[in-house]
Structure formats: C-alpha cells, structure tokens
Amino acid sequence: MSSLRSLVWGQQHGRVRAIWRVLIPVLAGFLALRLTGVAALTFDLNRGEMMVVAFGGTTLVMLGVIGISARYLDHRPLREYGYRLSGDCWRKFVVGTGLGVLIVAMTVVIAHSTDSLRVTSGTLVPDAALFGWLLVFFAGFVGVAFYEEFIYRGSFITNAVEGLTARDISRPVATGVALVASTLAFALIHLPGAIVADANVGLVVVKTGLLGGLFGVAYLRTEELALPMGLHLGVNYALMNIFGIGAAETPGVPSLLTVEHTATGLWSASRGIPLFVAILAGYVIVLLWTRWRNRGRTAQQRNHLTHSPSD
C-alpha cells in the first residue's frame, strides 16, 4: 500500500507526483478532442463544421479540466501557469498573433517562389456569410490556443521542471529537458490526426515539433502564456482562414485566399520545407523581440531606481 501511495503521491503533502500532474491534462485533452470529434460525426456536417464542433466541445471540457487540475492536483492559482490579465499581456498576445500570421505569410511567399503553391482567388472584403464563419473559426482557434498552451507549456513545463529539480537536477538542465519533452509530446499527440488524414507522418512530426518548440521558447522567454497563445492562434488561423493553405485540403473551411497545392512531400506548403523555413525564422524573431523587451524592461527598472527618492 505504501509503495502504491509513493507511486501516486509526491513528497509534498496533498499533491500527486509531477509525472501525473503532467500526464493527466495531456491525456484529458487528447481524449476530449477525440470524443468530441466522434460526437461530431453523428451530425450531418462537413469537415470544417466538424472541426468547429470538436474545438468548441474540447474547449468546454478543458475549462473544467484546467480548473480541477489547478485546484486539486497542482494546488496553485492559474496565474502561476502564465495566465495573467494585464495590458502588457494583451500586448504580448496581439504581438504573438501577428508573428504567427507573419510566419504563415512567409510560408506563402517561399512556397509561391518555389512553385509549391498557386493562389487561385482571394477577397479583401468578405461578405456577411463568410465574415460570420471567419469569426466562428477565430473563436474556435482561440479556444485551441487557450487549452493546448495550458497542457503543453503552462502545466507540462512548470510541473516537469519542478519534478526534475526535486531530484537535484539543476534548473537550467531541468528547463531544457522539460522543453524538449513538451515539444515531443506536442508532436506525438498530433500523429493520430495525421494518420487519419493519410498525411506524411514524418513531416507532421517535424512541423508540429518545430511549432511546439517555438511556443515553448516563447513561454520560457516571457514566463507567461500570452505570447505563445498568440503565436499558436496566429499560425492556426492564418494557415486555415487567411491564406487558405490548410483550407485547400479541408472542405468547409472559410478562407480569404483560395490556393492550390502544386507540390507534395518535402516541398508541401502545409507541412514541408516552406513552412519549416518560416518557423525557423519565427524562432529568430521571437528571440530578438523578447531580448528587446527584456532589455527595455531592465532599463526602465534601472531608471526607476535611479530616480526614486532616497529615504
């Protein structure tokens, strides 16, 4: 009985071990998405509408899971995962969203210049019906960014670092291991969808791994979820609903641009070299932007200390 207890409970009273605090949200998110996806099959819906139903249902389920996990497993407030409501966080969210869109825009430019993609039509001013569906998908992807960033960055990295440092592993090493592990988990969890879609599994792993690493770096550089959530939202929404790269393969997804894929495999715009190069450029941009932000914050703190009245 004592061995079973030690397997579940850590040394800190009232908290389960870090491994379970990491795995339970991951498994809950995976099962919620799969079950809501299966439930969506019972309705007469196209692929795009099924995506919206699955995303919305999973978001509702994960709101409960996040609350239960934070209160009863972790015993910590949500702000300690990186959820903070402030003007600065909203700015980081907007910047992240813009950077995510920029990454996909670079993908389009690279894919078009290498004859991997052809733009067939586009609109700058959508009609009422298209605009409505664009808003619906935007809300759906906001939900995805919210719960996936909790699962794979806020909860995963936070608890993995705590568990590793409790075993006398230095914090820098523990942080690196946690980042790699969360990135691998993020990549592997997308494999079932790739298999169902008959996609190239290897390319999907590289794509989601690179994106997961980017979101993780953004989280660690800011210690908040606003920037990675914005990046996640921007990439997903731009791929599907702005530039239409994902919509070209998914019936029922509204998009401002309509594109045709003229290359597959390594040169696929949706999961190949054009996207990989753009994501790697995203790493550089995130590192430079966060360095600039941190340097500016340090300068402000120095100025505040210099000009503060003496006792």
TrEMBL record:
Upper classification of the organism: Archaea, Methanobacteriati, Methanobacteriota, Stenosarchaea group, Halobacteria
Protein name, UniProt field: CAAX protease self-immunity
Membrane-spanning parts: 20-41, 53-73, 93-111, 131-152, 173-195, 201-221, 233-253, 273-292
Keyword Lyase: no
GO molecular function: endopeptidase activity
InterPro entries (UniProt xref): Rce1/LyrA-like_dom
Keywords: Hydrolase, Membrane, Protease, Transmembrane, Transmembrane helix
Record-level GO BP terms: CAAX-box protein maturation; proteolysis
Top-rank taxon: Archaea
Any matching Pfam family: Rce1-like
Ranges where the CAAX prenyl protease 2/Lysostaphin resistance protein A-like domain occurs: 133-237
